[in-house]
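Hi R.,

Here's the chain you asked about this morning:
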Amino acid sequence: MTVTAANARQVLEALRQAGEQVDWEGANLSGANLRGADLSGAEIIGGNLREAHLEKINLRHGNLQRADLGGANLNGAELRGVDLSGANLGNANLENANLQGANLIGANLQGANLRGANLKNANLHKIDLENGNLYAVNLRKAYITQAKLGQADLTEVILSDADLAEADLRKANLQGANLSGANLAKANLSDANLIGADLSGANLSGANLRGADLQDTNLSGAKLRKADIGEANLDAANLEGADLRGANVSKAYLEGANLRGANVSKAYLEGANLEGADLEGAHLNEAYLGGADLNRANLEGVYFPWEEIPYVPNIDTAILQALQAGGELEQEAWHTNATSHAWAGWAVHLAGDQGYALQARLGIITAASLIYARSDSHPVPDWYATTEKALADIQQRAQRQSRIEPALEMG
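And here is the predicted structure, written out as tokens:
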């Protein structure tokens, strides 16, 4: 008997009672109602299931290669180990479906709803899911290399240990996603939203993260060698122990970021904002820091070619003594004249010609910050403090250095 959309359930039940298998060859099941049906192991290769009602159907380990499931409702369907390679799932509803270990190579999922679906260990190589809805989907250990996921909703998705090498995730929403241990080598994450995401131990070597939002992101132990993080927002991000060797971090925002023990050797940090960042024990050998803002940063124990940076003994005490000798502290201008400078200006001035040469090469904030770190005064001061606050801080730091009570009246 030919199976059609109209008689599918009736034929299925009759053959089940007779202990026989359904022959799905040539079946046209477009619009069929097979809710909750058990079709485990069924072969519906190239079958027509467009807009079929397949809620909670059991197609476990079935073969649906090249099947047309466009617009079908597969909410809560059991699709473990099913072969959907080359299938059309455009605009299909796969919400809460179980697709563990499914083969989706070459499948069309444009406009499909995968919210809450389980795709653990699934094969989605080169899948096209641009603008797709994958909210809270489980893609743990999934194979998603070279996939198209631009502007997709991947909020709170589980992608731990997944392989996303060379995937296109431009402008994707990955807020709160779990990408721990994931392989994102050479992936494109430019302008993506990764706020609060877990990328600990992830491989982002050669990845494009330009303009991405990585605030509060966990990147501890992540591999970011030669990655492009230019203009990305990494404020308050955790990069402890991360590998950033050769990365482009120009004009990135890293305010309050944790870079303790990170390897930033040969990285390009021109114009990066590292205000208040913790770089204790970080490796900055051959890193370019021109124009980097190190205001209030912790540079204690940083590995850097310090022999290139001038040393000013007891620098805070030296600045205070210069002020007591008639010098002026004027925070509104870095250098007013030979005896009037802002706090950062005094640090450069007291370092002599080497200090001014360093300022010319890297900018005054970077130069002053490195001079302070080289002179063992930690953390880097607040260069933008008011004159009154700056003076109070200098006095306090000088007191710690010399254990005397300096007195200075500003006229």
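One quick note: The chain is about 15% helix and 0% strand.

Cheers,
M.
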